[in-house]
Design brief:
mainly alpha, 167 residues, 0% strand, membrane
């Protein structure tokens, strides 16, 4: 049985999601790398806009993975045991809400375009609804990232950024 020292703060609620999220990020990055490689092999004659979208998303996800890894190294290796460093936002404000919002909004807009292109006469209605929701999600994700950068801590973000996070 593990006995916790009463003088130490409970860091598990912040430490566990950061560590597990970074490990899952690396696993999913490996899956994305294989998908991009298979796309490269299977569709060598795709037009440049589709290739630019695929490789651009891959580059953004690569940057996101590197930023998250640097932050996790900083928290768990360089500042091990420092609860203030664990609670600090570092560059997570950019990597998670901003990059994820840009990638998901871009991909959803592409799917909306494809649905509008392939659907019947009223496909533009579905395309418009998907596009509006994608833009709303993208804008609120970037707004969450900006708020996170201003607030600077995970606890502060949880306490003060409810409206854009809920949207």
């Amino acid at each position: 049985m593990h006995v916790r020292d009463a003088a130490l703060p409970d860091v598990e609620p912040i430490a566990a999601p950061l560590l597990i999220g970074s490990l899952l990020n690396w696993g999913l990055y490996g899956v994305l790398t294989m998908q991009v490689y298979l796309y490269h092999l299977a569709f060598p004659r795709d037009r440049w806009p589709a290739k630019t979208l695929v490789y651009g998303v891959f580059l953004l996800d690569t940057a996101q993975t590197m930023i998250v890894t640097a932050d996790v190294f900083d928290v768990y290796a360089r500042h091990f045991g420092d609860s203030a460093s664990l609670n600090g936002m570092h560059n997570e404000w950019l990597a998670v809400p901003v990059f994820s919002s840009i990638v998901s909004c871009t991909v959803q807009l592409y799917y909306a375009y494809r649905i509008g292109y392939l659907a019947d006469a009223y496909g533009w209605v579905l395309m418009a609804v998907i596009s509006a929701l994608a833009l709303l999600q993208g804008i609120t994700g970037i707004a969450t990232g900006v708020q996170a950068a201003i607030i600077g801590t995970f606890e502060g973000l949880e306490a003060r950024a409810h409206s854009v996070t809920i949207i």
